Amino acid sequence: MSKPLNVLIIPDKFKGTASASQVAVAIERGVRDSYPSAIIHLLPMADGGDGSSEIIANALNGQKLEYPARNVLLQKMKGVVYSVNGIGFLDVATCSGLAKLPEVKRNTLSFNTFGTGELMRQALKTHDHLVVSLGGSATTDLGCGAAQACGFLFLDNKGIEINPIPENFLRIKKIVSEEPANWLRSKSIVGLTDVQIPLTGPDGTVYNYASQKGAKREQLSELEQWVEYLATLMEDTFNVPIRKIPGAGAAGGFGAGIIAFFNGELKQGAEYILSTLNGVEEIHWADVIITGEGKFDLTSYHGKVISKIIDINGKNKPIFIICGSSDLPSNHLMEKHIQINSLLNVFEESQAMENPEFCLTEIAKNLTL
């Protein structure tokens, strides 16, 4: 009698259509249909983007806590923090996110992360350790709004407090930190990055992400100058070279803010979450690995969930990647143990977008494991 097949289903979300948990369950249905004797483990994953805190909390039986906060439009809302084994987890995207913001209201030049800071301050009252997932923000404020909510003051040359949004950066001449320095001293804060971009320059946060956050093309050069100015002020104030740190540009520079304002550290999100959820052990356990994400392209090889899974696996076991669409160059050669299965190769785009779980199940049914 042959040994049952050990199958690990370990996908990221299909952004905008299905959560990682929904993707995992849909794939499981298909595999179960074709391989009823298989031993299947589900491990929904994230890379430090929006939804990461919930993924961790669900896997580790965390507690969901709600606090009053504000979004980037300063509208009141309920912010969510997850408490897991004494550690607080939250997403920048909960209060300062892009996904739920209509395109016509996106204006990163006048937004900041104050609402996220409100949430952080509440969480730090009951947690000494806080993990902040940085992906999915609508902001380019270097975390200044969050710092303001936690007690930092941004002053002009007359000592008048300035609202720290990008449009006002050049008016800020001094950052005062006496009050936060006392209560934050005993706290430990980690920022999870879903991208490893620097803060400034052609590969930095402005030129990579500000356009999708509402900045017009003709505004990018000026916004970059504002960010450069404030980065210099932050480096001089806190004596930290934030422009040289990989990941500092994540979430509109919130990565830099985690380091400068909160004396925190940055970690690669996919790597951190895989380790926290025993993903490495699960990959070694499996005979077959099924992973996926909404769009598979060359960026998937740089710090994303799939890239980490491929690295950990080496060339030991077959990996099946199920994606909404694959946008690899025509000359890109996949290794023999990796197979890509795109929903759009089988289904119409409208069907894949409107009913992704059905499509995922059908694709999974037809995998030759």
Description of the molecule:
- There is one protein chain.
- With 369 residues, the protein is of the alpha/beta class.
- It folds into two domains: 6-45 and 278-365, Rossmann fold (3-Layer(aba) Sandwich), CATH 3.40.50; 52-270, Alpha-Beta Complex (Glycerate kinase, domain 2), CATH 3.90.1510.10.
- Helices cover 35% and strands 20% of the residues.
- It contains 14 helices and 13 strands.
- A six-stranded mixed beta sheet has the order 3-4-5-6-9-10, sandwiched between helices. It has a five-stranded parallel beta sheet with strand order 2-1-11-12-13, with helices on both faces. A two-stranded antiparallel sheet has the order 7-8.
- Strand 11 (288-296), helix 12 (305-313) and strand 12 form a beta-alpha-beta unit.
- Helix 1 packs parallel to helix 14.
- It is elongated and about 75 Å long.
- The mean pLDDT is 93.
| Largest sheet, strands/sense/barrel | 6 strands, mixed
- Which word captures the global form? elongated
CATH architect. name of the largest domain: Alpha-Beta Complex
Mean pLDDT: 93
Can you describe this structure in just a few lines?
With 369 residues, the chain is of the alpha/beta class. The protein is built from 14 helices and 13 strands. It has a 6-stranded mixed sheet with strand order 3-4-5-6-9-10, sandwiched between helices.
